[in-house]
Amino acid sequence: MASTSPTNEPKKSRFRHGSSGGATKADGASSTRGEAKEPGRSAQFRQVFETARANDPALLAWMIGAFALVFVLLLIIGFSIGHPIYLGIIGVLLGVLAALLVLARRANTAIYKSISGQPGASVAVMSSLRKGWFVEQEPVGVDMGRNRQVRDLSGAAMVYRAVGKPGVVLVAEGPKGMAERLLASENKRTTRVLGPEVPVHTLRVGTDEGSVPVERLQKDMQKMPKVLTDDEAARITKRLRALGSGRPAAPAGIDPTKARVNRAAMRGR
């Protein structure tokens, strides 16, 4: 007598429906993440160009001039040796490269000018230094003066620190009198900690006499004579950070990270 066994029937998993639903949710989340894509290279290039041109009206003329100079020069060489088409194509490629180099150089200058006078402009420039520099993202000294509005740093003086092969570089920004006093105090403290063997350079960012424009800060720091090795700079940085708790604290309620400029926007992202 034939009997029907329940084991011959396929069992339905009570979790199958839930798993399918979970997969659907995951797919939906993936598609949502896919829609929020970062802008492409062309969009980033356009954003950088528009930002730079807004602060440098002559940017387009410089780019066209760089392209034309390279292209015409190679075209003349091509006619002189009997290969104008070949060198003309090379001239187009190198001309585009020259125009992009001009854009990169003048865009940096234009963007630095656009953030001049803003709290944290100094550290934004210092953070773009090449490897070999150890830059503190937070100010090592803050003087609010009479302003007790902790969220308003527009009238505050701040000192930022970087350590590299030239030694220790202290950069002050803010009102001249307050910035100079704060810079002198931090210079004295740093020299006392490290001794006279380690050079300590002081700079004040501003537009008045005796100050360094923010767009020139990076260049001036890179021109400083190099006297330390990378290992020595790293050891000095660790020592200063370890002793950092000994310096006067920033006024209560100040978040020093709020004094930084958004460098992602500077890169056109």
UniProtKB/TrEMBL annotation:
InterPro entries: DUF4191. Residues 1-42, 244-269 are annotated as: Disordered. Keywords: Membrane, Transmembrane, Transmembrane helix. The chain crosses the membrane at residues 59-79, 85-104. This is Membrane protein. It comes from Dermacoccus nishinomiyaensis.
